[in-house]
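User: Hey, my collaborator sent me this sequence without any context and asked if I could get a structure. I don't really work with proteins. Can you help?
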Amino acid sequence: MINSLAAVHRAKGKLDDALRLYTEAIGIWERTLGPDHPEIAGALNNLGNAYDDRREYDRAGPLHERALAIWEKAYGPEHPYLGNALTSLGSTRWHEGRHAEAIAALERALAIREGRETPREDLGETRFILARALWDGAGDRSRARELARLAADDFGALGPGRAAERREAEAWLESNAADVP
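Assistant: No problem. I've predicted the 3D structure and written it out in structure-token form, which is a compact way to encode the shape of the chain:
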């Protein structure tokens, strides 16, 4: 319940409230379930995402890494939850300019997400962040553009609720069109 309330605050841009509530939820779960319970990993990843929203990447990264470790230990290396933590970690690393680490996390996330039925919004998110990490990290630019095209299609298929993400991916493609033969 507290984790859900934190998510509402985050969606509304009330990041201080979201951070406080995520931290409270984690504290309660750690005391009642133990520090490595899989339920805690979701709140850790969400807390990391809230720090990402504030551009506090140094605080976000360790939270994503801890969520990833908990989920991987509990569910194994291919579980869909790992796609969430890996995408979040990859995004954090991309924002920090740590492109090789970003690409490694995002490639793994994409392999997990493409290997099963995954909501298109999740695929689009991973594909678009990976596209930008590849581009900025001097990776395969043709593949980066293809991933961005797929992400735009993913977001477009979701309708008006994801129109902003579709437009962002399309604008990125347009602004990077001249760099690929």
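In plain terms: The first helix runs from residue 2 to 11. You can pass these tokens on to your collaborator as they are.
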